[in-house]
Amino acid sequence: MKTILRIYDEGLKEKRESILKIIDYGNYEIIRKKPNIIGRFEFEDRRFFVKVFKRKKIFSYIFSPFRTSSSLKACEVADFMLKHGLLTPKPLISIERRGSLGFIKEDILIAEDIGEHKTLRELVQGCNDGKKFILLAADYVRKLHDSGVYNRDVNLANFLYKQRSLYLIDLNRARISKKSLGFLKRAKEISKSSFQSSSANLYGNILSRRRSPSRFY
Questions:
Q1: 118-216: which CATH number, 1.10.10.60, 3.10.129.10, 1.20.200.10, 1.10.510.10?
Q2: Torsion of CA 108, 34, 140, 156, to 10 degrees
Q3: Which CATH number is 2-112 given?
């Protein structure tokens, strides 16, 4: 089995064998097991996030020799977003293990752990007026679309809120365009999102007015 490592943090290149041992021996705290395995660990005073992608459909496995791994896609999109000023946990390492014919056997993402946070879904459900948080998410999505990222999984649970800043996660389904997204693609994304209808309307207002909800920070 062939192991393919792509390292996005220069400081980790000399420590990759130590980190691989942590992953291979399962020496990390598991936070949840479904739909993918999510975990975290500490190494040399740094906190790391681990996501082990599970194979959900047989067709995904059959075509995996011809496809980019989920971990690599997530890293590439995250790296692109950070370069465009959009917050997301910094991608650190993509780990692929492929069989002799290129079938993906293991697919693992390692990223920075941003620490204590709450999801926007928790915040919206836990307060009487969640409008200010929905506005923040809508403005983030507008900027995301302006940068050329088609997320394909707009979900309040994928927005992490920490110290008045938003971080977007779960980027393995996203696609990068060479230019800002057109109106139809933006509308399609929102129509298929988990945003409530009121949230989608707020997004539409921000899209049309090009305004920022900074007064809510």
A1: 1.10.510.10
A2: 180
A3: 3.30.200
